[in-house]
C-alpha cells in the first residue's frame, strides 16, 4: 500500500516487520553529569567497515534521548539467549534501570552489561531525523566478542538461533543427509537430536496454526490465558517468551478477533476463543499422534520425563 488513499495500518506494519528476525540489544550511554540510560532495541545493524560504523534507532518519545543526544559515546550490548529478563527489564520505564544490575564502565562511561554475547563501544558519530525515531550512527572504537548464543526477536516473540536443518532430501538420492548422519556418533548426541527434531517439526506446526488464522504468538498466548487467565504480565512474558509490549498487542489482537474479553486487568477467554482453542488443541494432538505413533504410552511417558529434565536444567 503506497498511495494516500491506502494509508498503512501501523499495527499491521509492525507485525509485517516482525517477520524479519533480528538480534536483541540494550544500548547504554552516560551524560557528563553521570546520568546513565539504557534502552532495549532490535534496530541494531551494521553500516560500514571502513570506517567501522553501526546504527540503531530510538523512539523520539523516549526520555533517554536527552542523554543519547549529548553523550560522547554509547555502547550496544548484544544480548545472549539467557538474558530475556534483562531485555524486559530495560524495556520498562523505571526510575533507575541500573539498580541491582552488574556492569562495568566503558568508553564515555557507557555501561557494559555482564553476560552478553558481545558489545560495540561507539563514539556518537551522527544523528539523523528518521520519522518518529532518531537514527543513531556510532563509530566503533572498541568491541568485545564473547561468542555466546544470541537472543533473537521474531514475530513478536523471543527466539534462539538453531543450526539450520540440512536434512532435506538431496537430488539424485533416496537417503536424506540427516538420516545418514544418524548412523554416526551424532546419532548418540541427544542435543543434536533435540535440535534436529525441533527444526523438522516446528515449521509445519506453525503453518498449521496460520491456516487457522493464528500467528504463533497469538496461539501461544491464548493457550496460556486459558490455563492462567489471572497471571501477571511478568508471568505471561515468561510463559510465552514475549516482551510486554508484544504480549499486550497480542491480547489486543485476540480481543479484536473476538477470542478474548478484556476489562481492565481482568481477562476472559470468550466462547469463540474456546472454540478456537479446541481447534488448536486438536491440531496439536493430531500432530503429536502422527509424529509419535510408533511409541507406546510407556515410551511416551519416558520421553516426556526426559524433556522435563532438560527444561529443568535451565
UniProtKB/TrEMBL annotation:
<dbReference type="Pfam" id="PF01613">
    <property type="entry name" value="Flavin_Reduct"/>
</dbReference>
<dbReference type="InterPro" id="IPR012349">
    <property type="entry name" value="Split_barrel_FMN-bd"/>
</dbReference>
<dbReference type="InterPro" id="IPR036388">
    <property type="entry name" value="WH-like_DNA-bd_sf"/>
</dbReference>
<protein>
    <submittedName>
        <fullName>Flavin oxidoreductase</fullName>
    </submittedName>
</protein>
<dbReference type="InterPro" id="IPR002563">
    <property type="entry name" value="Flavin_Rdtase-like_dom"/>
</dbReference>
<dbReference type="InterPro" id="IPR050268">
    <property type="entry name" value="NADH-dep_flavin_reductase"/>
</dbReference>
<comment type="similarity">
    <text>Belongs to the non-flavoprotein flavin reductase family.</text>
</comment>
<feature type="domain" description="Flavin reductase like">
    <location>
        <begin position="17"/>
        <end position="160"/>
    </location>
</feature>
<keyword id="KW-0560">Oxidoreductase</keyword>
<dbReference type="InterPro" id="IPR036390">
    <property type="entry name" value="WH_DNA-bd_sf"/>
</dbReference>
<dbReference type="GO" id="GO:0042602">
    <property type="term" value="F:riboflavin reductase (NADPH) activity"/>
</dbReference>
<dbReference type="GO" id="GO:0010181">
    <property type="term" value="F:FMN binding"/>
</dbReference>
Amino acid at each position: 500500500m503506497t498511495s494516500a488513499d491506502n494509508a498503512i495500518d501501523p499495527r499491521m506494519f509492525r507485525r509485517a516487520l516482525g517477520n524479519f528476525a533480528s538480534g536483541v540489544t540494550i544500548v547504554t550511554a552516560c551524560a557528563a553529569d553521570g546520568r546513565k540510560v539504557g534502552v532495549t532495541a532490535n534496530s541494531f545493524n551494521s553500516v560500514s567497515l571502513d570506517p567501522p560504523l553501526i546504527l540503531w534507532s530510538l523512539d523520539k518519545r523516549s526520555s533517554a534521548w536527552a542523554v543519547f543526544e549529548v553523550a560522547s559515546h554509547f555502547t550496544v550490548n548484544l544480548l545472549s539467549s539467557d538474558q530475556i529478563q534483562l531485555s524486559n527489564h530495560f524495556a520498562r520505564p523505571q526510575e533507575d534501570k541500573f539498580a541491582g544490575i552488574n556492569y562495568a564502565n566503558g568508553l564515555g562511561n557507557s555501561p557494559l552489561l555482564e553476560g552478553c554475547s558481545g558489545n560495540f563501544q561507539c563514539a556518537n558519530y551522527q544523528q539523523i531525523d528518521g520519522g518518529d525515531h532518531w537514527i543513531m550512527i556510532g563509530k566503533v572504537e572498541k568491541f568485545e566478542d564473547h561468542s555466546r548464543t544470541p537472543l533473537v526477536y521474531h514475530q513478536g516473540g523471543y527466539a534462539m538461533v538453531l543450526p539450520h536443518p540440512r536434512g532435506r532430501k538431496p537430488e539424485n538420492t533416496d537417503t536424506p543427509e540427516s538420516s545418514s548422519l544418524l548412523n554416526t556418533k551424532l546419532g548418540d548426541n541427544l542435543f543434536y537430536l533435540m535440535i534436529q527434531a525441533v527444526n523438522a517439526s516446528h515449521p509445519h506446526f506453525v503453518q498449521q496454526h496460520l491456516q487457522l488464522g493464528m500467528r504463533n504468538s497469538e496461539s501461544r498466548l491464548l493457550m496460556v490465558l486459558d490455563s492462567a487467565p489471572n497471571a501477571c504480565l511478568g508471568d505471561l512474558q515468561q510463559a510465552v517468551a514475549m516482551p510486554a509490549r508484544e504480549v499486550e498487542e497480542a491480547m489486543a489482537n485476540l480481543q479484536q478477533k473476538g477470542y478474548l474479553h478484556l476489562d481492565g486487568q481482568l481477562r476472559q477467554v470468550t466462547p469463540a476463543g474456546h472454540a478456537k482453542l479446541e481447534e488448536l488443541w486438536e491440531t496439536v494432538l493430531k500432530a503429536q499422534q502422527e509424529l509419535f505413533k510408533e511409541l507406546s504410552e510407556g515410551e511416551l511417558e519416558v520421553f516426556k520425563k526426559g524433556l522435563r529434565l532438560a527444561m529443568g536444567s535451565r
